Amino acid sequence: MTEAAVEMQGSAAIPEAPHRIEPTSQSKLDDALAILDDHKQEWAALDLEERIELLEQMREGVVEVAEDWVRASVEAKGMTFGTAEEGEEWMEGPATTLRNIMLLIAALRDIEEYGVPQLPKPAFTRPDGQVVAPVLPASTWDKLLFQGFTAEVWMQPGVTLENMSESQAAFYRDKAPKGRVALVLGAGNVASIGPMDALYKLFVEGQVVILKMNPVNEYLGPFIDHAFAALRERGFFRVVYGGAAEGDYLCRHERVEEIHITGSDKTHDAIVFGFGEEGSRRKAEAEPRNTKRLTCELGNVSPVIIVPGPWSQKDLDFHGVNLATSVVNNAGFNCSATRVIIQHEQWGKREALLASLRKAFQQAEDRRPYYPGSEERQQLFLEHHPHAEEFGTKGEGHVPWTLIHHLDPSDPDEICFNTESWCGQTSEVALPADSVAEYIDRAVEFCNERVWGTLNCSIFVHPKSMKDPQIAAAVDRAIASLRYGAIAVNHWAGLNFALVTPTWGAFPGHTTEDIRSGRGVVHNTYMFDRPQKSVVRGPFRVFPKPAWFIDHKTAAEVGRKMTYFNADPSLARLPGLIWSSLFG
Q1: How far is it, in rounded angstroms, from Cα 290 to Cα 250?
Q2: Domain limits at 378?
Q3: Residue 312: C-alpha distances to residues 179, 184, 464 (Å)
Q4: pTM of full prediction above 0.90
Q5: Residue spans of the chain under pLDDT 70
Q6: pLDDT tens, 326-339?
Q7: Residue 319's domain is classified under what CATH number?
């Protein structure tokens, strides 16, 4: 890779958004941290029954603010009520947060009875010796709502079936846990990220939390504060506000002992090494100014590997919408948004899939580019690729859905492979190979060696293709070989995030000087201490239409009903949820 490409690669640099809520003063930040510091040992020693009771109160708190939470999100992002856009905010906000809370309650009850969370099915060992733990379906409700979907967490080398329980719930195995204060720097895009990152630090790692809201979505802070009031009142949790200056002050504060950030590698480097020339020097010489334990999820140029096969027109159209959804969702401001579609150069339906993707983009509604700098980032990609296709309204204040295709896979400076665009942009490239199995192997190598990041990727494969032993073996080899923390088969890897039982985080092994997609995981409600990756599998085509698809007609209704179902699963709530899903 050339020097220019190395300088360009990474996640997007985001300018700071204007504030809707006044930044918290340093004196109030000091007061908040003093309260947390005073109560951290009480939290560490709190018994399981009290923790479960607090989670129950938080469940009620999320339900109380859910309507206002979603309304504020829809309005702030310039979305339309009653559409799939509103449905996204239900499903990616209170619904997912409530699922996390309920799964943590179940996990703590298991710990109380068995010592560790209990798997829904026994773990097993792959032929290569790697241990795999099934984590979905996690309940009878999951079997009904996610029919045909499964999820696994694959363990790091050294974990065996015999010692796996010793690699679960480390905090709860500690007979004398030490209280610690954690700073969570919240993400500005998906509403559930901040509260769910806080839940992980609190209930999996056992730390009290100060959550600094991102200026982009700081309007959510009061709702999170209300939902987590039971923790706040005990001195275990605080919400604060501000931008880079407040974040820097907190990161270097003597009372902050650990840090978790969902953001960019640029932000990570600023925290660890500092800013400007001094920061660059420190990074080059491996001299961090901040040596606190820091876990982070830092973005990705997310690839999708398309396995050629006997795809019908219905298959092509389904996955055209599937791919477009992963770009259009949240206006493209997701670290899991598809950025590179990889195809087999010799596949006769390569152009047909692109045509189906174009059709989906043409039918997709415009979204307001609410994240600062998105117009400039899209323009940067257009400067590299002036013949890119754009779909939707153009001009100031708009970022059309942008498709850049037929890329050169050998170009070391290709911006689409090296840089996360953080807007509604995606790209396509084809790799030559003499057979499908050889193509899959080459696609894996391309993802691992040429595409920036290790957070998530997907692979789409027709079920008839899997009847070919060579292709089936190549797909299995791909899943094992892909160096990504989350892998999805036949679907958008954003599902790994939303299902909550899988882990969400980068593939392990990044150094502080080359952090890429980050270090550590969140969600992970079975509390594995040494996970390597999560793998979600789903049917090649799904009926009824997935509620997260951008053309789902009743997504808002489904999202609302899913939220209240997650808070209180029951047979009485199930028929209405299923009925709404059928009309998407």
Answers
A1: 12
A2: 302-482
A3: 57, 46, 12
A4: yes
A5: 1-8
A6: 999 999 999 999 99
A7: 3.40.309.10
